[in-house]
Protein 1
Amino acid sequence: MSFALRKFFAFVKIEHTLFSLPLIYSGVLLGSGGSVPSWDILLLVLAAATGARTIAFALNRIIDRRIDGLNPRTAGRELPSGKMSLTEAIGVLTAGLMLYFGSAYLISSFCLLLSPIPLAVFVLYPTMKRYTPLAHFGVGLGLAMGPLGGWFAVSPSLDNLLAPGLLSFFTLFWVTGFDIIYATLDEEFDRKAALFSFPSRFGRVKALRYSGYLHIVAFVFLVALFFLSPLSLIALPLLAATGFLLYLEQKRAEDVELAFFRINAIAGACVFAMILVGIFV
């Protein structure tokens, strides 16, 4: 792998796609009405998701580059360390925009019409931590639009949105909860820099308690999705497994590497497997 490609992957945190893609494709499956989506749609959804992820992370890194440079944990990132220039970062952002809008155009005119909405969230949420601890919900909202995007790719209308809506609310509270866990890494820096987060505002113990409450709410939405959608009971163990993973994430929240990266990746895959098995088996 070339140095430029490695730098790009590091800049947009390509590994974080493990959190978003399973939920996006879960939306695709729910919107497919029990039929197998075409390869064209699956690839276009992948391209749109890649473009959206690139936009979101590029905007986050560009907007936060000065704050990242002051934080010892993030000072080594591409922009504050000088490994990538601002011009290069804007180039990555532009490429993401072209891929995202091009894919939306090829999917449907309906998706193209709605495509600017996520961009407003991507611009807003990196700034939120400067004035409100609710910034975690901005991250959650950014990812929560993924399942709806997957649904709209195969069902381009505003009809029958109960199932994708429940999946999106699950994603909103799930992601908000685990972003609070991730923010514990910067509790001390955020407090000194007058940045808002649950850990810096409420302290680590109370913030993790709130994270747990959010994950309980997330699981309630997932249970509602399971029983209010035509999913086979054979997928019930996967629902239970997802609940256990959310519980395990809270129990191991002090180990951010395990809780945030590994357990979350498995939880997202488990939700996708639940919907896949529930629809097709």
Note: The first helix runs from residue 3 to 11.
Protein 2
Amino acid sequence: MRGRNFFSIAAASALLASPAWAASPGEPSSVLIGVAAGAAALAAAAGLWALAEQSASMHLRRLLRSSVARMKSAVGERDALLDVSRDALVVWGRDGTAPASYGGGEEQLDSCLKGPDAIEVSKALDDLGAHGVPFTLSARDASGRNLTLRGRAVGGQAAVWVEPAPETAKVDFRGILDALPVPVWLRDRTLSLVWANRAFLKIAGAADVEAAQRANAALEKSERDLAATARAQQQAVEAKRFAVLDGHRRTLAICEVPTPAGIVGAANDVTDIAAGEAKLQQHIDAHTDTLDKLATAVAIFDAQQKLHFYNRAFAKLWSLPEDWLDRHPSDGEVLDRLREARRLPEQRDYQGWKRERLGLYQTARDYPSEDLWHIPGGKTLRVVAQPHPFGGLTFLYEDVTEKLSLESSYNTLIKVQSATLDTLQEGVAVFGPDGKLKLHNAAFAKIWGLAGRDLAGEPHVRAIAAACAEKYGEVAVWERLIQNIVSGADIDRRLGEIERNDRTIVSIGLSPLPDGATLVTFADVTDRFRIEAVLRERAEALEAADRLKSDFIKHVSYELRTPLNSIAGFAELLASEEPGPLNPRQRDYVRDIVAASGTLTSLVSDILDLALIESGALRLELEQVDLPAMLNEVAVHARDWGAKVGLNLEVECAVRTGTFLADERRLRQIVFNLLSNAFKFTPKGGVIVLGGHIDGEDVQIFVRDNGPGISPDVRPNVFERFAAKSTAGQRGGAGLGLALVNRFVELHDGWVEIESGNGGKTAGTLVRCHFPRRIDDNQPPSAERRREMA
């Protein structure tokens, strides 16, 4: 309309402006007439356009009024429908606009926000309004009434439905199914998942029913096939399937039931039941396998006397074909076949014996039956028939031929043992755990003078003790013997010797036997005891003589010291030439006298020390000894001594070797004696090594030389007193020197070892002394410990 009006006005304007309408210069009236005509045309066009616009505007207003009326009618109908709905509803825009309430929903929601569950409801409403998070929860309003709130995001708005809780409304079966721990689900006719309870959703790993529907979830991949089978057969289908739940392989019993609403499925976890069934089957198989491996033949006949089970030993024993046994023959048929093969005991009346045998199915129900079958060929079988829990009988066939043979051999062996015991000179008696006499020999009765009536009928040990007391008086050892036999406690294997009133000495010994019995031996040791007494007296006399000899040596040593000291003193005085000058010969004589007196003094001191040691009068004074310091101090004095005889002395001992507990005075004496022995037998120009070290708890001091070794015939007696001998070019022991060394080391609880060549100019000898360390480096011994060590 507007386009057409605008086009008319433009056409009129163009017409007026055209040359055809232009007035000539001499004609002004023509121009005016033209202008007036154009203006009239323009006015007419504008009027027509205004009328057209007014008509269109009125038509649009009528359309808008009609649309608003229809919308108001629809909104009214919607509000009326929501108001009459069962559930109350509250809807508000997520942009914060005021909510719309239907069915009193706003009032009920406000009441819930004032109830005890207000915090949970408020949080759910905030999450729904801010992020569109759906929720379904139960809440109590201000009056305590239970309500169910369901919130959902609808477009750009949020809606909350408020409905009474199941306990105040109709029964909510879906809620009940949700509470079950058993997975339950519903599929429609197309096998698509329609609904599932929480247990199903948890196992399937779905967040909610909608997610499970989208994935068409299933507990097990073949579950939909079972549902299809139930739909096709129109009946319930049950099957066991395996599925992995929570990382574990589980056994599920799945049931699919067709209903008008679809196929309802449920699954029960029967893993424990399946495991129990498998274990039961394993027990049955193991039981069968065990019976099959037994050497005893086993056959089980059911209540109808049919062969139900047999093991390999049964088929092997009777040489029956397994294909025939697998046909489950009756017990009577088995007996007949065995009789035909002459494998049953010979019977005069076989039919009567067979009837009696088959009668066991009635008589052996309460107690088992046992019999011995002596079958042809010399074999003996022990046959046991016992009732089976499921009816029928179980027959056990045991070959006891070897057992009877062993019993016969055992009886023969017992007789041989009894005859052997009777030949012994020692009395032997075996008492059982009850204290009764089980076995004895003739020597036992002879030693104690017991008659046959005293030993008849397995008498008790107390009765035998009483019989012996009548003949030889009360013997205290019998009471100890009775306690050992009857109490069953730890047995005193050696009760010692007793002397009876007839001057006979009897030695008694005990020994436990594997069966709990006690073996008691009695030996007449009178002669041996008397010989031992004689030998003991002789030994005591020898010890007394040895002590007398030691006392004599000790006394002589003390008596020799006084004149020796005088001789040594006057000899040294003469050697000093203070009384007067000596000629060269006198000077040599005096020097020999001084040397001889020194040697004799040392010998007397060694003899005195040995006498003290052997008499037990010598006591060690234990103290903490620094091994390297002691050896170096000894070496300082010994080097001058060695230099005089042309020998070199070396020391091998680390500076920080450590300390140990010993008598330092005796240690120095040991070292000087070892060095003296080495200096004596090492040729001029030789090397003597004095050393020591500590290895754990073992302290070692040694002296090594490169002189001639000790000959093999002298070496065993090198530590004996006065046993030292030497030959040309070889060395023997060191007389009292090594003997004293050995005694001093033994007093320290140590020992001495010698390593030497078999003789020769450079065989060399090593004497090593071992001492217990007794203490740590940083722990000096106490006075009490020293006394204990001494």
Note: The mean pLDDT is 78.
